[in-house]
């Protein structure tokens, strides 16, 4: 879409890679998250298979061209991506209200794109893919390593969903896409996979200049309007939880009944004086 790419962002040789630290595996929950905002259809979304010369792109290489299509892209800070027709945005929040991940929900399944810090030398996705495949196998998934437009892809058949992991190395960044759907949705040639590759081929990565540890996720920054909506929804949720906890605490408290005070028996009094007086003892 954006034309010729800068040489520094070209695909790297997968046979060259450095050693990296332990990969922090991420669990992919297939339960549907609340849809917080529908995303308008992008008029120029191309769902044709990715080919040579396509993205993902480095922001520095295409920033001027990106201005012409900014309204047709979803800017999440570290990643800028197109949205397929009918796609809806789902945001996964941490307990403190910080966005952890952003998903695109489609009629065929869910697509998640995330970017990570990487060294200048190539090969991070190769190492991550190997670690990821081992981790998935240990969890009982059936795993296959397949070849896609950018090289190796991981297909995992789990008990809850079928998953396809696609990764691409860039200049000081690595982008990873996860396509999750029902049985058969992650197979090569399935509509979900075609949409995932089309999205990745038009994705732009904004790495930034800050030094970051290798494999650290690049920050997700939500558009202002969406961030305000989510902040309000999160605050309302927190207040509702606090009210519920207060009500539960009040219900568990046992009320203490006031016991009536028992007075000692009083001597009987006659018409002409007290009982003692009547007995002549006073």
From TrEMBL:
Cited Pfam families: DUF3710
Extent of Acidic residues compositional bias: 12-49
The name this protein goes by in its record: DUF3710 domain-containing protein
Region ranges (Disordered): 1-58, 244-282
Transmembrane annotation, as ranges: none
Biased composition (Low complexity): 244-261
Species classification: Bacteria, Bacillati, Actinomycetota, Actinomycetes, Mycobacteriales
Naturally occurring in which organism (per UniProt): Nocardia xishanensis
């Amino acid at each position: 879409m954006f034309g010729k790419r800068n040489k520094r962002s070209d695909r790297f040789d997968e046979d060259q890679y450095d050693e990296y630290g332990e990969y922090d595996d991420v669990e992919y929950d297939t339960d549907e998250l609340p849809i917080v905002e529908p995303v308008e259809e992008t008029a120029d979304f191309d769902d044709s298979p990715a080919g040579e010369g396509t993205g993902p792109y480095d922001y520095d290489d295409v920033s001027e061209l990106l201005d012409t299509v900014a309204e047709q892209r979803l800017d999440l800070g570290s990643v800028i991506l197109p949205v397929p027709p009918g796609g809806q945005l789902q945001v996964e929040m941490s307990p403190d209200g910080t966005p952890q991940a952003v998903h695109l929900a489609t009629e065929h399944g869910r697509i998640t794109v995330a970017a990570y810090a990487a060294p200048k030398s190539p090969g991070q996705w190769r190492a991550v893919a190997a670690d990821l495949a081992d981790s998935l196998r240990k969890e009982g998934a059936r795993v296959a390593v397949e070849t896609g437009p950018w090289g190796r892809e991981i297909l995992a058949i789990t008990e809850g969903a079928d998953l396809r992991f696609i990764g691409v190395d860039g200049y000081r960044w690595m982008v990873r896409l996860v396509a999750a759907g029902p049985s058969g949705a992650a197979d090569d040639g399935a509509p979900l996979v075609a949409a995932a590759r089309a999205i990745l081929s038009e994705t732009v990565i904004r790495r930034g200049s800050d030094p970051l540890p290798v494999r650290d996720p690049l920050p997700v920054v939500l558009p202002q309007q969406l961030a305000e909506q989510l902040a309000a929804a999160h605050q309302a949720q927190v207040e509702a939880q606090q009210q519920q906890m207060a009500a539960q605490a009040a219900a568990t408290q046992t009320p203490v009944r006031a016991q009536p005070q028992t007075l000692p028996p009083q001597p009987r009094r006659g018409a002409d004086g007290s009982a003692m007086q009547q007995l002549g003892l006073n």
